[in-house]
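Backbone-to-sequence.
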């Protein structure tokens, strides 16, 4: 493989809630309307920036073309130390105990 990538993912329920609030906050994005309507558009893939599901599938479809480490936000949140070690090992970066 020519390169390595680290893909950080998140539970789709958390993604849609966070994205909804981001749409409400970011004035450059269209008003999201009700959460129910936004959820429907999210599931259809018609929100700003397109389908989250297609985005995830797109990355995962390349797991055989490249070295790809998939790590979840929940995994990092639960055990950041273990996650940092995992990423460093994957990237071939030495990590010393004093750096943790």
């Amino acid at each position: 493989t020519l390169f390595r990538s680290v893909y950080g993912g998140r539970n789709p329920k958390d993604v849609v809630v966070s994205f909804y609030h981001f749409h409400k906050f970011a004035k450059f994005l269209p008003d999201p309307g009700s959460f129910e309507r936004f959820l429907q558009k999210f599931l259809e893939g018609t929100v700003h920036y397109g389908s989250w599901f297609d985005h995830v599938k797109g990355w995962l479809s390349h797991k055989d073309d490249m070295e790809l480490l998939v790590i979840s936000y929940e995994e990092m949140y639960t055990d950041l130390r273990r996650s940092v070690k995992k990423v460093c090992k994957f990237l071939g970066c030495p990590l010393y105990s004093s750096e943790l």
